[in-house]
Specification:
The chain folds into 3 domains: 186 residues, FAD/NAD(P)-binding domain (3-Layer(bba) Sandwich), CATH 3.50.50.60; 148 residues, FAD/NAD(P)-binding domain (3-Layer(bba) Sandwich), CATH 3.50.50; 65 residues, Arc Repressor Mutant, subunit A (Orthogonal Bundle), CATH 1.10.10. It contains 13 helices and 21 strands. The two termini are 30 Å apart.
Amino acid sequence: MREEIYDLLILGGGPAGLAAAAEGLSYGLHVGLVDERPTLGGQIYKQFGPGFRVREPRRLGRDYARGRRLIEAVEGTEVSLHLRTSAVSIEATSVVLYEEGAHTRAVSAERILLAAGAHDRPVAFPGWTLPGVLTAGGAQALVKTQRVTPGRRLVFAGSGPLALAFPAQLHHYGANVVLALDAGRSPTATDVVRLAAASRGNLGLLRDALCYRAQLLRGGVPLRYRRIVVRAEGDERVEAIVHAAVDDGWRVRAGTEERVAADTLCVGYGFFPSVELPLLAGCEMRYDEDLGGPLVVVDEWMRTTRPGVSAAGDGTGVAGSLVAVDEGRLAAIGAAVDLGRLPADIGGRRAAPIRARLARKRAFREALRAMHAVGPGIYELARPDTVVCRCEEVVRRDVDRAVEGSADINVVKSLTRAGMGLCQGKNCQRQIAALIATRHRLLLSDVAPATPRLPVRPVPLGAIADASIADGGFFTR
């Protein structure tokens, strides 16, 4: 088989990856684009699966249209697309890929761009494993791309811009949203002044927020601030949601619990970046809970601290699709400059307006931070018998017992099996880290993540070992 070598290999087909692919192609780079899904677009620009035909794209909204423009700039071009393909290991600028139904293969590149996006922030509370409890991304996928309403009476609990956007979108698509809860505080006059000062270049975001709020008002959907979901109740599925008032740290205020009948709970407390590959690659990380937690450190061209490896999108801080698009473009320009395909002075001129837009988006994000800063109480909702690790069915009591003797998340993982399941800790690792931080009086940012190990995605054993692998006689008769 001919070895695959690219100028720019992009891992992730969402907004950042698509923008980088089109930008890199425009400078004559040989570009490869890898994504786990059968269609491009990522979560925010999620497309219908193969076999579906869209007859009236206008009815699908602006996100669909934006996604189509990015995808069409890549499809049918010289960009080499690898769909249904996962990156399971990375070393220097060599990546091991696994395509469904095939064996793993190594691919190398002059420059690798990590653009794996993010996933919904899981929150462990009593009843979070009941049927009828969905993440915001899961509910959005059902409603937007499958036209399936997840339930008859839906409660949304979350924080930040999601607490406006998601319930409004779900209501727009026909879901009966009976209540929306935002753990953050309601906007004050000071917040309005800050947002106004940071509005240059961000008027579209402000308009979107006002439209979402108007949709909730017109639909009669109550939006209540400083409220958090405490538990979901039910036997075989959700029957009721209990929520309560919280303080500035998102800790529950005693005596404020309220109960509302519902058969569906949509949880949207933000996102966690997918940082398994950056960790495995040895990239330097920083920590910002409000932007997702552990984030990849990058320079002005989106280069990481590892030679030949760049990062863009949610892995550098969850900041929305528009930021991801510009970061992807900036990374591709930087790669073209580094590879000698674009003079540095021209690259600098083309990057200047992108950097200006990103600066304005950062200023707007900082203006929002006071309202939407994530409180530590989000990690204090689980009871002793609450499942923390869904894959291995490990409850908090077992985790607490292991945490008593160690502040090392790897030790806790070995003792309890929490984090060893299919999700590889995506749903439980931050919760466990928070328990370690509380018990040992550490900052959450001081608790190192579990040691990354390949493969970072589950793969069949036969994909990495077959008759061609010499086993020294240990596993053959």
